[in-house]
Amino acid sequence: MARGPREREERDSEFVDKLVAINRVAKVVKGGRRFGFAALVVVGDQKGRVGFGHGKAKEVPEAIRKATESAKRGLIKVPLREGRTLHHDVSGRHGAGRVLLRAAPAGTGIIAGGPMRAVFETLGIQDVVAKSLGTSNPYNMILATFDALQQENSPRMVAARRGKKVSEIVARRRDASGEKAAAAGEA
Q1: Most buried among 35, 67, 88, 132, by the most CB within 10 A?
Q2: What is the dihedral of CA 178, 152, 49, 39, to 10 degrees?
Q3: Taking residues 129-142, what's their average pLDDT?
Q4: Mean pLDDT (whole number) for 11-39
Q5: Is residue 166 domain-resident?
């Protein structure tokens, strides 16, 4: 069954894309310099799926289009708590890029810089605190952020891996925090 252009537009309209970086690159040839452009784009559906892509071309719009297509091919699914934040704190790294992502209470907003902010906005996260600890290179920051997001687990995923019920895992975590509070009260 072939999809018409109208169906393709409807499917693509569910995604939000953000241009993270555009870079002008030069190739030196006999007659002078040939300029090209490299674009880095983040694409997401604001419901837990996000991807990034890189595209190069002689013109800026073509580079952005290529990067957007590349991003849509490499989408990942990230579990979100209450559809607004992360389930737990996580760190990621790629090359010299290191990032720390922390879950935040409702109303905090997105506290993150540059490329990480674009990832969270397209992912649909509303409350998160993030810190870049390494390089400010947008490519490495994005890759480190994706490394961290791929490590994110929901209680359901942990329960499935352990062969238990979600209620057992959540109850155990509450008991452990209650014991610590009781021990602190006794001291």
Answers
A1: 67
A2: 130
A3: 92
A4: 89
A5: yes
Side chain identity at 139, as an amino acid letter?
Y
- Whether 138 and 117 have beta carbons less than 8 Å apart is answered as no
Q: How many domains does the chain have?
A: 2
| H or E segment and range at residue 158 | helix 155-162
Instruction: With a cut of 70, say whether residue 3 has pLDDT above it.
Output: no
- CATH number of domain containing 11: 3.30.160.20
With beta carbons less than 8 A apart as the criterion, state whether 16 and 45 touch.
yes
Task: Decide: 37 and 56 in contact? Cβ < 8 Å.
Answer: yes
Flag whether pLDDT at 33 surpasses 80: yes
Helix (H) or strand (E) holding 177: helix 166-186
Q: Which single residue is written with the structure tokens 């579990």? A: 79
What average pLDDT does the chain have?
Answer: 85
Q: Kindly tell me if the per-residue pLDDT of 159 is higher than 90.
A: no
| pTM of structure | 0.82
Distance CA 132, CA 159 (A): 31
Strands annotated E in 3-144: 16-29, 32-44, 49-57, 76-77, 90-94, 97-103, 110-111, 128-132
Q: Which of 76, 105, 121 is the last residue of a domain?
A: 76
Print the domain residue range for 23: 5-76
Q: Is residue 88 part of a domain?
A: no
